[in-house]
From TrEMBL:
Protein name: DUF2752 domain-containing protein
InterPro entries recorded: DUF2752
Species name: Abyssobacteria bacterium (strain SURF_5)
Recorded superkingdom: Bacteria
Keywords assigned by UniProt, alphabetized: Membrane, Transmembrane, Transmembrane helix
Pfam families the record matches: DUF2752 (PF10825)
Transmembrane segment boundaries: 76-95, 148-168, 188-207
Length: 208
């Protein structure tokens, strides 16, 4: 048994000993005690219903290595997210916007859009990279005409970059805020905006 687990077992055994003497041990099949940070420990029967002091003893004894690993993973995720946002912004500045309003991603050695090649019309995501390249040059009108959601996405990158940089330094977890959002309504809203942006893109493309 590891030193930490052995220490936790001895601490719980001392709790049992005290309550055996006081007659507080009930019959049962076991008891699961929830510790801090979402960890839990299951104890076999016969077991006790720990007092508040016992719960504090066991909660304070929650595995520090596991907690530290989780905090490290959150910090690394924040660093990776901030780096990805910064890379997208810097790469947008290095790309030259395609005058067609789409196809700028081909400068990254990516394949041309299959939908555009087959139909001659832009797909729902056509113009995203072009819009980023225009936004990086403060060409807001051209960015909006290329792809409204692309222009919005560039602004979102600028907004969230300092958030994740700050979180990477102080160890906070911005992703917990995402879980608190009404994801289903936001998903519907995103889908509607995506379709509207495509209709707008098609209109601009056909007019040109």
């Amino acid at each position: 048994m590891a030193d930490h687990d052995s220490h936790r077992y001895r601490g719980f055994s001392s709790c049992i000993s005290r309550h055996v003497r006081s007659g507080r041990i009930p019959a049962g099949s076991g008891y699961r005690l929830r510790l801090k940070k979402g960890f839990s420990v299951r104890f076999p029967s016969p077991c006790i219903l720990p007092s508040s002091e016992d719960k504090k003893l066991l909660a304070d004894d929650a595995s520090p290595p596991i907690q530290n690993n989780r905090a490290l993973m959150v910090r690394l995720l924040n660093i990776f997210t901030a780096a990805a946002l910064a890379a997208a912004l810097l790469l947008s500045y290095r790309l030259k916007p395609d005058p067609r309003g789409l196809g700028t991603h081909e400068q990254l050695l990516l394949h041309p859009c299959n939908f555009y090649s087959q139909t001659g019309l832009p797909c729902p995501s056509c113009g995203m990279t072009t819009a980023f390249a225009h936004m990086a040059r403060a060409e807001f009108r051209d960015a909006f005409l290329a792809q409204p959601l692309g222009a919005l996405g560039f602004l979102m990158c600028i907004l969230f970059l300092p958030v994740f940089l700050f979180a990477a330094f102080n160890g906070s977890n911005p992703w917990l805020k995402v879980k608190q959002l009404p994801l289903k309504p936001l998903s519907w809203l995103s889908g509607i905006l995506f379709l509207l942006a495509w209709v707008f893109k098609l209109s601009v493309f056909l007019i040109r």
